[in-house]
Specification:
Elements (H helix, E strand, L loop, with lengths): L7 H10 L4 E4 H9 L4 H11 L8 H15 L6 E4 L5 H10 L6 E5 L2 H8 L5 H24 L4 E5 L4 H16 L2 E11 L2 E9 L15
Parallel strand pairs: 1-2, 3-4
Antiparallel strand pairs: 5-6
Helix pairs in contact: 6-7
Length: about 220
């Protein structure tokens, strides 16, 4: 989880690529549902989200997650949910209806850093709207963090991505028992270091495999 622009999708994608965990991008999941051809469901979602400018209701998100879990759980040792939870109510509903929250990775990004990073890419009007969204989401994330502090790994998204992931790998092993192998390719492409992490985690040892979706 994290505010807009903090790098949570980058972290989630890299972790999933080097593991057997299934990556579920919440925004893509909602978009695919809108474009699926089911006009009634698409109309319902769009009426709530107003073109994705507002948050999709928890009931819709959780129902879509249930469908993903039901159809893929036999072939998955666990899941990485990108952009979830948005708020504390969503996390609690997830635990009540699906399964418990095992851990949360929380990349942080201050408002000033967000503005410096994205000002060149936005108009002033777009930036003001984005700042309001960033403030709102940051407050929601802090509520989640306070409730799940013992299950949360925080990282500063201003640090280089290889440094962030290296620290996450160490902490995931130290505090949660997930075993990663760090492979660093020092060859630079477009001034970016290629960094790979390989998760070695069997279904029997992974708490994320213990997923019993509640009816």
């Amino acid at each position: 989880m994290g505010p807009p622009g903090c790098g949570k999708t980058t972290v989630a994608t890299l972790l999933s690529r080097c593991s057997d965990f299934k990556l579920v991008k919440i925004s893509h999941m909602i978009k695919e549902e809108v474009e699926s051809g089911d006009k009634w469901r698409a109309k319902t979602i769009m009426s709530f989200t107003q073109g994705f400018r507002r948050l999709c209701p928890n009931e819709i998100v959780l129902n879509l997650l249930k469908e993903v879990f039901y159809t893929t759980c036999n072939d998955s040792v666990g899941y990485i949910l990108d952009g979830f939870p948005i708020d504390l109510d969503q996390a609690k509903q997830f635990e009540f209806e699906i399964t418990k929250v095992f851990m949360i990775i929380y990349p942080t990004l201050s408002l000033n850093s967000f503005v410096m990073r994205y000002r060149p890419q936005m108009t002033e009007a777009e930036l003001e709207e984005a700042k309001e969204k960033h403030i709102e989401r940051s407050k929601l994330c802090q509520n989640v963090y306070r409730h799940y502090e013992q299950k949360t790994l925080k990282c500063n998204s201003l640090h280089p991505i290889d440094s962030i992931l290296n620290e996450l790998v160490l902490d995931l092993d130290r505090y949660f028992g997930y075993k990663f192998r760090f492979i660093s390719d020092t060859t630079k492409t477009s001034n970016t270091r290629n960094v790979h992490y390989e998760m070695r985690c069997s279904a029997s040892s992974s708490p994320l495999a213990q997923c019993n979706i509640r009816e």
